[in-house]
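Predict structure. Chain length: 408.
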Amino acid sequence: MGYLRFLIDNRLFLLAGFLLTFTSSFGQTYFISLFAGEIKGAFDLTDGQWGGIYTIGTTLSAVTMVWTGVLTDRFRVRHLSLGVMVLLAAACVAMALVPNGFLLIFVIYALRLMGQGMMSQLGAVAMSRWFVAARGRAISLSSMGFAVGQALLPIIFVALLTTTSWRALWAVAAVCVLLLIPLMQYLLRQERTPQSMADGTQAAGMAGRHWTRSELLHHPLFYMMIPLVLGPAAWGTALFFQQVHLTEIKGWSLTSFVALMPVYTVSSIGFTFFTGWAIDRFGVKWIVPFQMVPFGISFLVLAYADTIAMAGVGLVIFGAGQGMQGTATTAFWAVFYGTRYLGAIKAVAAALMVFGSAIGPGITGALIDLGIDFPDQMIPIALFYFGGALLAGCAILRYQRDLPNVAV
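Prediction complete.
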């Protein structure tokens, strides 16, 4: 079945997945960091202090995700998304009203937990459960919400920031989330049965088993994949978190750098669709080991870029990695560990991802305060990506032999 026919036949469920991932934008780093200059100015924060606040709030959300992510095994997406979206809107309102830096920690916590954490978790688990044979295509289509959000929202809100206060824009974000709730409820009025309630449609993982979270945590493959989960979240988050600092060091305008987001998004979309097709055609085990390589190359390009055009090249390559990572990693957990306990397993992966997005800004911000500019940090980060790719490749080669013949 081609992408177009698949999209038409499953349009309601795929649009629901798209909206889940799109709505996560309001808790993603690339959106929050747009207001970094205004937030630091309002509360008199250095790069390191702002990074520290972000790290603490995001780390707390990562810890919480270990438990809240399990809710996707117990409740339908229709019901759970309603509560999460209401809380995300409340977090946006809190950001509009936050009076000091101390309370900012808890606002960041709520934004990251409900946005990057739970909305992303809902989108990933829903697609992995609702689709099996076409899982790669489903994930790639629904993850367009990430791409569209990252392409449009920075441009729109940076433009509005020239005439509107940053606090008012967070109120606008809250309204946007609330307006999407009725549409989400409509799309999911006849939601597919969660696989935790429909044993006949579950897909088993390695050794033909459905792995529990406890078994996952005692399996070597999980630990060998940690750099692959942690790296893109940590350093990809740092890239967008430090975009104001990066443009200042390079002598570029923030508006020019943000204007490159559509180019980055086109690359991300192209590789998202390619990866979805490749997963369904060849299997996720052949895709995962290579997804870290574009990240490493992109950081090397950005480290040495001296023009905004070269920055665009770096972001195109980074988009390729993002497209591969967003689709392949989500499918990986379902394929290797099964779908019966996918919510609990994906919660661990999501917690790692959120934790990575916590330490990236904190580490890079502290190093900036010590006099090591972000472009200088990009070279060792690139080496981290290449090392993670090698480790993931070894892990896949070792454990792919345990997959059932029907696994993709």
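Summary: Residues 162 and 275 are 38 Å apart (CA to CA).
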